[in-house]
Write a structure and sequence with these properties.
With 287 residues, the chain is mainly alpha-helical. The protein has 11 helices and no strands. The chain is globular. The two termini are 47 Å apart.
Length: 287
């Protein structure tokens, strides 16, 4: 009898282990995305830019904490730190967001992801969560270093520490707002193309091209136009929310009586970007 008609038993067996389900897949995808944000598990060249940015923001925080410990005065507070690092955050998300989503589009692995049990909403949640966490860590860890510089040099004991903590927590909240706005915009832009260079350029363009609009609106004779000018750019929008929540007009942006409009637009911008991102991947999953 010919060997071609023989069925050989080569040891294939049914999987008998635990089936972890969607939660485990989502957690693994989130962890992978967070590691990839800082180049962990990637070649050395993938670590150069993110860790270069991390090094710069940490150095700025250490210098600020050192000045505080020696003079008792900040160079800048927790809010101003986020504002000052805005350009670094732009370039950080411009590199990281395409790494998280454009690579998957280019390599064609999304049909495998969405076969089962992962859903489009799970994929979006994992990617958004990973980048929000990465951006928050980029800003929040240096802020914590600034807190340590103030808390351990206070001359009023635990009362001074609690006072410093009361300044840090709103600063962390401000960093969360930065993280959500920058993440939602950058991931939406990056999800439109599988070419990382195009995605990175598109992300930077969104932030850079909207900034001059604010300048144009700010010089119009109408007082209402000046108060609403900062709505035209994501960066100035965040600063407008800060001015509204802190009740200050000495931050370079005067929102007048329209502070609530800034808060509403920030919420709507994040929600719209996330909904569009979800719609984008639901379309991909249905293909």
């Amino acid at each position: 009898m010919s060997e071609a008609g023989v069925i050989h038993d080569i040891g294939y067996q049914r999987y008998q282990g635990p089936r972890l389900g969607r939660g485990a897949v989502l957690g693994a995808l989130y962890q992978h995305g967070l590691r990839a944000s800082f180049g962990l598990g990637r070649p050395a060249k993938s670590k150069i830019f993110p860790w270069g940015v991390v090094g710069i923001v940490l150095l700025v925080a250490v210098i600020n904490a050192a000045v505080r410990s020696q003079t008792g005065n900040w160079l800048f507070d927790y809010y101003a730190f986020d504002d000052g690092m805005s350009w670094l955050v732009i370039f950080f998300v411009a590199i990281v967001a395409p790494e998280l989503v454009s690579r998957d589009l280019r390599s064609g692995v999304l049909p495998l992801y969405f076969s089962r049990p992962l859903r489009a909403a799970d994929y979006v949640l994992a990617k958004v969560g990973a980048l929000v966490t990465a951006v928050w860590l980029l800003l929040g860890v240096p802020q914590f270093i600034m807190f340590l510089g103030g808390a351990f040099t206070t001359k009023t004991g635990m009362r001074g520490v609690w006072h410093e903590l009361g300044l840090l927590l709103p600063g962390w909240g401000y960093s969360v707002l930065w993280a959500f706005i920058f993440t939602s915009i950058s991931l939406l832009v990056a999800s439109l193309t599988g070419k990382r260079a195009f995605a990175a350029g598109g992300i930077v363009a969104v932030f850079l091209m909207t900034t001059p609009i604010v300048g144009v609106l700010s010089v119009l004779p109408s007082e209402t136009s000046r108060h609403l000018a900062a709505l035209a750019s994501p960066m100035s929008l965040i600063a407008g929310v800060e001015a509204w929540l802190r009740g200050r007009n000495d931050l370079g942006i005067d929102v007048g009586d329209f502070g609530a409009i800034y808060g509403i637009e920030a919420f709507c911008l994040i929600a719209a970007c996330l909904l569009l991102l979800l719609a984008r991947y639901r379309k991909v999953a249905s293909l």
